[in-house]
UniProtKB/TrEMBL annotation:
SUPFAM superfamilies assigned to the protein according to its UniProt record, in alphabetical order: (Phosphotyrosine protein) phosphatases II, PH domain-like
Biological processes per GO annotation: phosphatidylinositol dephosphorylation
Domain called Myotubularin phosphatase: residue spans: 173-611
Major localization listed first in the record, in broad terms: cytoplasm
Record GO cellular component, one term: sarcomere
Species, as recorded: Eudyptes sclateri
Similarity comment: family membership: Belongs to the protein-tyrosine phosphatase family. Non-receptor class myotubularin subfamily.
InterPro entries xref list: MTMR12-like_C, MTMR12_PTP, Myotubularin, Myotubularin-like_Pase_dom, PH-like_dom_sf, Prot-tyrosine_phosphatase-like
Protein's name in the database: Myotubularin-related protein 12
Keywords recorded for this protein, A-Z: Cytoplasm, Sarcoplasmic reticulum
Name of one Pfam family that matches: 3-PAP
Location within or outside the cell: Cytoplasm, Myofibril, Sarcomere; Sarcoplasmic reticulum
């Protein structure tokens, strides 16, 4: 006999966003707490809307004991339809993947999410008709192909037309002025120009409305092959060297076409080549980095390590964890990508050589490498607004196919590849190696990765600027006079209140000191970390700012004379990379200068916060870096409250109670995976008893305790 708690009326009404419609629901659904393999859990209602799948229990109806880090759009028991990875049904204790039409309905439902959560629902006590409706509804709305206009993005935008576009100082790069400002900021306007050739998308629908090319490239050249074969500017280094990208011509073509295209490329190179002033390294990323298919296969294997059904499964994989991790090849791909970014940085920084990244569409691995290089070399890209502007420039406006790569419409698995997640994983390596260099935290990166699957923001739900622009109007121009007002993900107030947003900002960020005029003159000659070794014995410039004009060169162009004469890696000394890498790491770190990630051996780590945050056994209670960060936030609040007191009194510091502001956190009670671990509000048994923690301080006892550790997990 099943007893359900009384306040069922509250559970019936899920919190619906503007434009959100309830499609189907089922009562008396039992949600397991997948902690120790037992059948403990809670009863409630399972609902499916055009935005999410949600489980509603007693806790959902009350606002008591809410976590400090609460997402206002997606609750702890909510799964957006785009976040659903796979759905399994359990028939007589056997798991079966659910897709399309179902002949028989399961007694249990397991939902694996793209943010690595796993939900287990028992439908044994639910009415048969409700089971049919909810299971077929969830499978249909989350797994079958759909049209773009059927995304919740459009329902939300039309139902909430007064949405404000909170840009939060993020440069959107959707105007010509934005590009010109970026050219000026990086001192790239000497050799490059922002063009309007693609206005009305007359060159290509894949290119943005505005972009930057070398000054000598003509409009006719851009138009000839729909932008292919044209070097497009990404960023300029302080020494004048530039990072460029180019979409290559298709490789398999008839001789006449390929000869014509070769002549076209040759013509462009001749027009803008002025050696020996400008050197160029071309890098075909499709041959020097893993393919998108390899990246997808590696990530698919990798994520399986974290989609844990229960505690027993966790400990079963724990014995061979490192070999399983290595066999996925995911960390090796991260290492290779970081190594490639260091190679590019060496060309720009030390060799003063322009780098041209080549890829079929220049919208996948080009985005990863160009973004990483800018994060490593430009301290502005390590601020929150700078990083967001970088994502806008290289990914959103740059034409990365988020819709296809994330498979939001479930149209083609072949196009799916976690390219943007790969970038965030690489940036995380830098953030955890050099925390003071970044204004944002790893929590910011984790939340950003989650936002990939929240379809109320347009940022990650289009393949190109053209696709977004053509879908801005309503169903028909007669009925919808005003275009849709889409939200941007960079307005964090939509998802989090100010207290929660505090976790996105790094309290230990080493801000760049602002010097007055008298200090600037002396500081200019002060030694800074400079690894640029001149190729010839020329007198180095005395200008040592981050962006430095090369006054001894005329306006220089970007490409070499002919394809056959380009510098390739084989021309460089074999130990050039290692020398550059070791030389940099032998000096103190300048958090506002060049940053090179450590990529040797175990330096490439698993992004624990993102991948282990839903696994209780993987948590350190009262430990981890978050305990330190939380304590610092407490101290900052304390200092701010004292400052307020001082300002009010207009006198010396008051000797009153320094704890007048209530503390938000208690570091002694936090898990190492806070703030996400708090979303699981059940009491979690520690993987080790308290007495064992003290013993672990002695390294000699660690090996002796291994058996106790494993035995204990079986008793849980």
């Amino acid at each position: 006999e099943i007893h359900i708690k009384e306040p069922i009326e509250k559970e019936v009404n899920p919190h619906l966003l503007p434009g959100e419609l309830l499609l189907c629901e089922a009562s008396t659904v039992y949600k397991y707490i997948q902690e120790d393999g037992s059948n403990r859990g809670t009863y409630g209602k399972l609902v499916c809307t055009n935005f999410k799948i949600a489980f509603l229990d007693d806790d959902s109806a009350s606002d008591d004991n809410e976590p400090q880090f609460k997402n206002k759009i997606v609750g702890e028991n909510d799964i957006t339809l785009q976040c659903v990875d796979q759905i399994y049904g359990v028939y007589d204790e056997k798991k079966k993947l659910l897709t399309g039409q179902l002949r028989k309905y399961p007694e249990k439902l397991i939902i694996y999410c793209k943010d690595l959560r796993v939900f287990h629902f028992c439908l044994r006590y639910t009415k048969e008709e409700e089971v049919k409706r909810i299971v077929s509804g969830i499978v249909h709305h989350s797994q079958t192909p759909k049209l773009l206009k059927r995304l919740f993005l459009f329902s939300y935008a039309s139902a909430a037309p007064n949405n404000t576009d909170g840009r939060n100082q993020t440069v959107m790069f959707d105007t010509l002025e934005d590009w010109r400002d970026e050219l000026e900021r990086t001192k790239g306007n000497v050799k490059y120009k922002a063009v309007t050739t693609n206005e009305g998308y007359r060159v290509s629908e894949k290119l943005p409305l505005y972009f930057v090319v070398p000054i000598c490239v003509s409009e006719e050249s851009i138009l000839k092959y729909e932008g292919r074969g044209i070097p497009i500017w990404c960023w300029s280094c302080h020494n004048g060297a530039a990072l460029l990208k180019m979409s290559a011509f298709p490789k398999e073509q008839d001789d006449i076409t390929s000869q014509t295209q070769k002549a076209f490329l040759d013509g462009i190179y001749k027009t803008i080549s002025k050696p020996p002033y400008e050197l160029l390294k071309m890098d075909d990323l499709s041959s020097s980095l893993p393919s998108l298919q390899d990246i997808q296969i590696a990530y698919t294997r990798f994520k399986q390590l974290f989609l844990i059904d229960n505690s027993t499964d966790f400990w079963a994989t724990d014995v061979k964890w490192f070999s399983l991790l290595e066999s996925t090849n995911w960390l090796e791909i991260i290492r290779r990508v970081l190594k490639k970014a260091i190679e590019v940085a060496e060309c720009l920084e030390r060799q003063h050589t322009n780098v041209l990244l080549i890829e079929e569409s220049a919208t996948d691995l080009c985005c990863v490498i160009s973004s990483l290089v800018q994060v490593m070399m430009d301290s502005y890209s390590r601020t929150k607004s700078g990083f967001q502007s970088l994502i806008q420039k290289e990914w959103v406006i740059g034409g990365h196919g988020f819709l296809d790569r994330c498979n939001h419409l479930h149209k083609s698995d072949k196009e799916e590849a976690p390219v943007f997640l790969l970038l965030l994983n690489c940036v995380w390596q830098l953030v955890q190696q050099y925390p003071p260099a970044f204004e944002f935290t790893e929590t910011y990166l984790t939340v950003l990765s989650d936002s990939l699957y929240v379809p109320i923001f347009s940022t990650f739900f289009f393949n190109s600027q053209h696709q977004k622009d053509t879908n801005m109007s309503g169903e028909s121009l007669k009925t919808q006079s005003a275009p849709f007002r889409f939200l941007t993900v960079w307005d964090w107030s939509v998802q989090f209140d100010p207290k929660a947003q505090a976790f996105l900002n790094n309290p230990l960020y080493a801000e760049k000191p602002k010097l007055d005029k008298s200090q600037r003159k002396t500081a200019r000659f002060k030694h800074q970390r400079q690894l640029s070794l001149p190729l010839t014995q020329t007198k180095s410039s005395t200008k040592r700012g981050f962006f430095r004009e090369e006054t001894d060169h005329l306006i220089k162009n970007i490409l070499g004379k002919r394809i056959g004469k380009f510098i390739n890696s084989s021309d460089e000394p074999p130990n050039s990379f290692r020398e550059f890498y070791d030389s940099w790491h032998s000096k103190p770190v300048d958090y506002h200068g060049l940053l090179l990630p450590r990529i040797d051996g175990p330096e490439i780590k698993v992004w624990a916060q993102r991948y282990l945050r839903w696994i209780p056994e993987a948590q350190l209670h009262g430990g981890g870096t978050i305990a330190t960060a939380a304590k610092i936030l407490d101290l900052m609040e304390e200092v701010q409250s004292l400052q307020v007191k001082m300002d009010e009194e207009h006198s010396q510091a008051v000797s009153g109670d320094v704890h007048s502001v209530p503390m938000l956190r208690n570091s002694a009670r936090l898990s190492s995976l806070f703030p996400f671990a708090l979303l699981q509000r059940q009491s979690i048994k520690p993987a080790l008893p308290t007495s064992t923690w003290k013993d672990l301080e002695d390294e000699d006892d660690l090996v002796k305790r291994d058996d106790e550790f494993v035995d204990l997990s079986g008793d849980m």
